[in-house]
Amino acid sequence: MSWRFEWRRTWDAVWAPTFQDTWAGLLATSGSAHVFHQPDVVRAWAGTRAAALDADPLVGLARHQSGAQALLLWVVVPYRGRFLPRRVLEPIGGSLFGYHDPLVAVPAGERIDWPEFWRAARREVRAWCDQALFRFVDPRYAEGALSEPCGEQSPVLDLSGLPDLEALLERCSRSHRGDVHRQLRRLSDVGAVSLWIADAASVDEAAADMTTRFIPALDTGWSRKPSGSIVGHAGVVEFLTRVVAEGVPAGWAHYSALRLSGTPIAWHLGFHDGSGLYYWMPCYDAQWENFSPGKILLTLLIQHAIAHGWPRIHLLTGGQPYKLAWQPTELHLRAVRWHAPTWRGAALACWDALHR
Question: With DSSP H G I counted as helix, E B as strand and the rest as coil, what are the percentages for the chain, rounded to 5?
């Protein structure tokens, strides 16, 4: 068989120094690594949200006969079902992570048969899960019968070569350009507008602001959605708290606030690495909704990113109009899903087909 798999099925095995060295080597050699592959990000999630889900790691190292390697950051999550309980294989981070790709290192000139990879992986894990779902996979790694369009837009804003914000606005529609300028003027007429970004020296201030302002505002914003507030999901607040407490000093997390005369009225919690900013958890004070604080905060974040030479902003899941107005590029991510080739997998497949 072209692929060979090694598995770590406990968190202690995942954090073992020898495996961490292998992980670091793949990060250094992969041309497609992103922030959701970073061990510190995974560790923060594993100690909070994963524990609340009772998720068990199924972290794999896949080796191809060509020399290609893929780190598979996966977990098995138990779910109660009306027909049968399910063991679902999911990417670490689940819906909280914007990309679900394997961490891949491929020798120069080699091309991997990814349909073969997914078929081999499905056979390998059949004893440990009943089905699998990876929602946001780069199309380079999601070919074959087990993949389909993910159903969500995932835009990326390219900032390379731009001298300033106005140069980017020139690429946008006249209506968007005018609206950005108008909303900035309106808010400036009320008070002094500024962007505050937390750093290692201000992480305690960020943590306090997050608890007293960001989390309540995030809860209010998400409560308007049909799915309800993410804040109420077990382990989520603990995960967000660790992202700030650990990620801001280490440089992989980004916490910022739009301030009006020194008072925060909009916030963003996200990630940062060499590829740019990951626009992840924005929210705003609903009392200022008529002044479009979220749009102004994103505008100032874009301005900051250009000024500091960040190559792009990953706008992550969702094609909301306020994102698309900036003329980003669409990644066309795909989902990979299967039912296990077992009697339980077949029974669940029939149930799902009947009730879809």
Answer: 45, 25, 30
Query: How many angstroms separate the CA atoms of 236 and 132, rounded?
Result: 22
pLDDT along the chain (356 residues), means of 10: 92 97 96 96 98 97 94 96 87 97 88 94 97 96 94 96 97 96 97 98 97 96 86 96 98 98 98 95 96 97 97 95 96 96 93 84
Tokens of 109: 């000139």
Read off the tokens for 172.
């946008």
List the structure tokens of 100: 């679900």
Strands (E), 183-275: 193-197, 253-260, 263-273
Give per-residue burial for 207-244: e unless 16+ CB within 10 Å, then b.
Answer: bebbeebbbebbeebbeeeeeeebbebebbbbbbbbbb
Full-model pTM: 0.95
Could you report how far apart the first and last alpha carbons of the chain are, in Å? 35
